[in-house]
């Protein structure tokens, strides 16, 4: 049976190979280990295997693990749906938020960000597959949202995030990821007269499609199952 250490190192190797194949600079992709439902000792093993960034979707569970792992310089990413009544603890405890799709949520996060902390890194979630059950703004809504979020003190607009409709068709995978990359490129080009809106992050790609995402320019891949195994009920 493979261990978390072995799986972590295997994923890092696959990322390195994909980056090389894509002809991109080394170390241009950050691996965010999606650790929701997995206990703190598993995260510690992954950290010791070389992973530094961890993604959580369930707030109370995440806060519990942060306390248990306070001795490690982990970079915490909130990657789940954001409820209005949870914005304060998210803004106080995380370095990154990947799922901002409404101006109201961005404003609440900014209002709650402690002044002694650096600006909160945020990615705007785009529903590039047009799925009715999936969160995210539309491509048409994106420019106005990006302009508005970019002007909010306490936040740093870093880029875009998407969870495309699952498919094993590599061509379709790459088409979806290419669309998100093109959206970010277009936004950056259109706002050259607005210093500060220079997004540099594409948070796209998960366990089943991260190679395709890297080929289309991903800078952050969010991988859970391939590192920690199947999810289960969280237990301390």
Overview of the molecule:
Helix content is 40%, strand content 16%. The protein has helices at residues 4-21, 40-48, 59-68, 87-93, 103-112, 142-150, 170-190, 210-215, 225-228, and strands spanning 30-34, 53-56, 75-78, 96-100, 120-125, 155-161, 201-203, 220-223. The model has no long low-confidence stretch (mean pLDDT 92). With 236 residues, the protein is an alpha/beta fold. The chain has nine helices and eight strands. The protein has one domain (4-228): TIM Barrel, CATH 3.20.20.10. The longest helix is centred in the C-terminal third of the chain and has 21 residues, at 170-190. The chain is globular. An eight-stranded parallel β-sheet has the order 7-6-5-4-3-2-1-8.
SSE order and pairing:
Layout lengths: L3 H18 L8 E5 L5 H9 L4 E4 L2 H10 L6 E4 L8 H7 L2 E5 L2 H10 L7 E6 L16 H9 L4 E7 L8 H21 L10 E3 L6 H6 L4 E4 L1 H4 L8
Parallel strand pairs: 1-2, 1-8, 2-3, 3-4, 4-5, 5-6, 6-7
Helix pairs in contact: 4-5
Task: Please supply descriptive tags for the structure shown above.
236 residues; alpha/beta; TIM Barrel; eight-stranded parallel sheet; 8 strands; globular
Based on CA atoms alone, the radius of gyration comes out at 17 Å
Alpha-carbon distance between the two ends: 23 Å
Beta-strand fraction estimate:
15-25%
Task: State the share of residues found in helices, binned by percent.
Answer: 25-40%
- Morphology: globular
How would you name the CATH homologous superfamily?
Alanine racemase
Q: Indicate the CATH class.
A: Alpha Beta
Low-pLDDT stretches are none
Could you report the average pLDDT, rounded to the nearest whole number? Answer: 92
* Derived structural class: alpha/beta
The count of DSSP E runs of length 2 or more, i.e. the number of strands, is 8
């Amino acid at each position: 049976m493979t261990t978390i250490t072995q799986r972590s190192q295997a994923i890092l190797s696959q990322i390195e190979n994909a980056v090389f194949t894509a002809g991109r600079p080394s170390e241009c992709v950050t691996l965010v280990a999606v650790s929701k439902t997995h206990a703190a000792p598993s995260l510690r093993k992954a950290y010791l295997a070389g992973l530094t960034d961890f993604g959580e979707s369930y707030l109370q569970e995440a806060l519990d693990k942060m306390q248990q792992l306070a001795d490690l310089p982990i970079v915490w990413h909130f990657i789940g749906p954001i409820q209005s009544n949870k914005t304060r603890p998210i803004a106080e405890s995380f370095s990154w938020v990947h799922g901002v799709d409404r101006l109201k949520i961005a404003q609440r996060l900014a209002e709650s960000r402690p002044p002694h902390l650096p600006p909160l890194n945020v990615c705007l979630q785009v529903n590039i597959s047009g799925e009715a059950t999936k969160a995210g703004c539309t491509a048409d809504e994106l420019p106005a949202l990006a302009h508005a979020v970019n002007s909010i003190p306490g936040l740093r607009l870093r880029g875009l995030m998407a969870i495309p409709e699952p498919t094993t068709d590599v061509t379709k995978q790459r088409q979806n990821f290419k669309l998100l990359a093109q959206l970010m490129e277009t936004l950056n080009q259109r706002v050259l007269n607005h210093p500060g809106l220079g997004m540099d992050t594409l948070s796209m790609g998960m366990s089943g499609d991260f190679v395709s995402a890297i080929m289309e320019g991903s800078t952050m891949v969010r991988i859970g199952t391939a590192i920690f195994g199947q999810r289960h009920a969280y237990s301390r």
